[in-house]
Amino acid sequence: MSGTRTSARVRPYSFTGGRPPCGHVLQLETFVQAPPPTADGEGFIARALPEVRAIVGLCRGLRSVAEVSALLKMPLGVVRVLLGDLADQGRIRVYGPGHGTGRPDRALLERVQCGLRRI
């Protein structure tokens, strides 16, 4: 077709190679934070993908996984994989739910259930 432009956008799964999150079970409410930069950390950031640089920059303050996804307008699954990679490398710290079976916390489910009943 004439006049059709090709999109410069990259498919989200290309950032993760199509792989699912592993190692860390990052739920929506899990908090993450990048530690203060070091000389080694700055070198890593300079070589990292722009999306990874954006995540680390945003995580200089304490953020939830949901906030990171929303503020960067990136799919939650992609953000979880990239955050998990960064946590495995020691580039970010994970607070709260972050390791485990991937099963939801019973107390959280009960709070959600109570909230739904109030609606």
Short description:
The protein is mainly alpha-helical and 119 residues long. It is built from 6 helices and 3 strands.
Mean pLDDT: 76
**Alpha-beta classification:** mainly alpha
The number of E-state strands comes to 3
Which H/E pattern describes the elements?
HEHHEHHEH
Strand content: 5-15%
What does this structure look like?
- This protein is mainly alpha-helical and about 120 residues long.
- It has helices at about 15, 40-45, 50-60, 65-70, 75-90, 105-119; strands at about 30-35, 65, 95.
- The protein is built from six helices and three strands, in the order H-E-H-H-E-H-H-E-H.
- The protein has a three-stranded antiparallel sheet.
- Helix 4 (about 65-70) packs across helix 5 (about 75-90).
- The protein starts with 12 loop residues before the first helix and ends with a helix.
- Mean pLDDT is about 75; it is low at about 1-10.
